[in-house]
Every structure is written in structure tokens, then in C-alpha cells.
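Thread: quick sanity check before group meeting

JM: Hey all, I'm pulling together slides for Thursday and realized we never actually wrote out the predicted structure for the chain we discussed last week. Dropping the sequence here so it's in one place. If anyone has concerns about the input, flag it before I start.
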Amino acid sequence: MENETDTNSWIKTNWKYIVIGLIIFGSLAVILLQKPLAQNQFYHAFADSRPFLSVPNFGDVASNLAFLIVGVAGLWLCMRKDLGSLRNAWVVMFAGIALVGIASSYYHWTPNDRTLVWDRMTLTVGFMGLFVALLGEYISERFRLVLIPAVILGVFSVLYWSWFDDLRIYIWVQMVPLLIVPFVMLLFPARYSHQWLIFVGALLYGSAKLTELGDKVIFATTQGIVSGHTLKHLLAAAGCWAIFLALKKRH
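JM (edit): ok, ran it. Output follows.
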């Protein structure tokens, strides 16, 4: 009876951590129980393939400049402002964003699985930096110790897809930060102001994923003005800018 009481007391004290753990490891278990997911080669057939100034697929290539701008601005901010013990995680996030601007341009210049590896690898670096930064600032600063293992896991998820043509782990690496952000921010007290901008960033990234799915529909609807994938880059970069503003303005 005493052991049962102690267990109930422990659950009541740590239920928030249990919820976060269930989301992280539960989602991993669910996705690993699925059949291996191969890369659909139609993914590389983007709606807007028009060249401009001798640049192939100009819209999708040029729109990546937004990531480079946000990434460099974020790294500048990390050098100028005291971001606490999780500073390295924010540095990794913004470095990943800046590298996305380069790697995604490289991919969209010649879309294929080989160039996509670099695009996705830099994405996972940014995701894992954000993931560790938020867990550290909301739950425990000790999460800074898992920054390097988290980045290695992100890179491995892309290599695993490249070696075995199985996207499951990579999808989980992308999905977990989006799942965790709202729960962490709702369950744990914020240490800083302007955290609503983190929510805005997550919403913009979610919107970016929707426009990615509607690449050809948006291109047709706008009569060729902009494709869904180009819009995805701009919305995702805007989401990163919202996080940059949250760090810049917070106190």
C-alpha cells in the first residue's frame, strides 16, 4: 500500500515529464511500427521549373536566400546577446538554417536523391538545435548535454534514408519538434517574454508544410506567379524569423 502511494505521488509530481516522454518515445515507436517508407521519385518534379538568368528552377532556388539571411542574422544575434546556457543550441539552430539556404539551393538546382541528402541533413541540424534549446529553456538546462547526440541522431536519420531508402526516422526527427513545442510551452512556465513568437514560428512552419503539399495547385491557382514549394520556403523562413524576433526581444 505504501509503495502504491509513493508511485501515485511520484506520478502526480512528474506527470508533465511523463507526457513529454510519451510524446517523444511514443511517436518514435509508432513510426517504427510502420512499414519502411521509400522516397517517392515524383517528389523531385516541382511545379515551377522555369529558369531565369541561367538559373534552373529559379523560384525554388532563389527563395532559399531567405533562409541564409535569417540564419546569418540569428548567428549574429547569438554572438551579440547573452542567451544563457542554451546559447550553443541556438547557435546550432541558426547555423542549420543558414546551411539550409545553401544546401536547399544546391538541391533545387538539380533535384535528385543525391542532392536532397544535403538539404535534409542541414534541416535536421536546425531542428535538433531548436529541439534542445526549447527543452533546455522550459524543462531543464541539463538538456544542453544532449545537443551533440541530438545533432548526430538528426544526421544519422538522413544517412539511414540514403542507405536504406527508408524515411521513417527522418520523418520523426522533423515531426517531434513540432509536436513538442506546444506541449512544452503549455505545460512548463516560460523563463522569458515574447514566447508567443515561438508559437507563431511553429504555425508558419506548419503552413509551409501545407503549401508544399499543394505545390502544383498553388502554381496553377496563381497562374504561375508562385508555386507552393517556393511559398513553402518563404513561409518556413518567416517562421525562423519569428523565432529570431523572440530571442531578440525577450527579457
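AS: nice. The two ends are 47 Å apart (CA to CA). The longest helix spans residues 2-32.
JM: adding both to the slides.
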